[in-house]
Amino acid sequence: GQNIDQPTEMTATEGAIVQINCTYQTSGFNGLFWYQQHAGEAPTFLSYNVLDGLEEKGRFSSFLSRSKGYSYLLLKELQMKDSASYLCAVKEGGSQGNLIFGKGTKLSVKP
Amino acid sequence: DVKVTQSSRYLVKRTGEKVFLECVQDMDHENMFWYRQDPGLGLRLIYFSYDVKMKEKGDIPEGYSVSREKKERFSLILESASTNQTSMYLCASFTSGQGLQETQYFGPGTRLLVL
Hints:
The structure holds 2 protein chains of 2 kinds. Chain A has strands at 3-5, 9-13, 18-25, 32-37, 44-49, 53-57, 60-65, 70-75, 84-91, 99-101, 105-110. Chain A is an all-beta fold. Chain A is globular and about 45 Å long. By secondary structure, chain B is mainly beta. Chain B has strands at residues 4-6, 10-13, 19-25, 31-38, 42-49, 56-57, 64-70, 73-78, 87-94, 105-106, 110-114. Chain B starts with a strand and ends with a strand. Chains A and B meet through β5 of A and β5 and β10 of B.
């Protein structure tokens, strides 16, 4: 079956580093996405991994291991505005763009 | 920049009413999606469309229908609204063949309350 797991909630301190993990079991794999969603707003795209390894984009990095069905999102130099939910999503295959979403990790950044 | 717009940010309807949620994208995307998002359940796919007049059921299509008469517009219809359809509804669009930077772009969402 299809399953995407990520922690429900995490708390971290301003200025620190936090890692949000995501494991997946899907019938196909054609890329993994991370989205950020502030309360009451739509998800916004953060990163995309389709090959193994680390993709770095400023304070945010995302890692993928296809053999382990595992990804993480790394947030450095945390700021209060990083308090949000972070959604992991897998594209199974095909060209239609269907994504399977995890339930999201709510990150709270404290002073 | 891709722009996906939804007709309303907030909507209050009564049980049994017919409800139309409209979504428009301005980037000529082939694929459009309707999700609902509920606490503890995450994003769940209701319907999607990969071309004009084409539609496919997602994971939770019951109680909903869709219409795609024009490429840029994808409508979600609640034939007879019920209280368990109170939710945040998110529309998204996606285009094929964009390579490594492809992703779904989301509209701002419609928060629907059914009384």
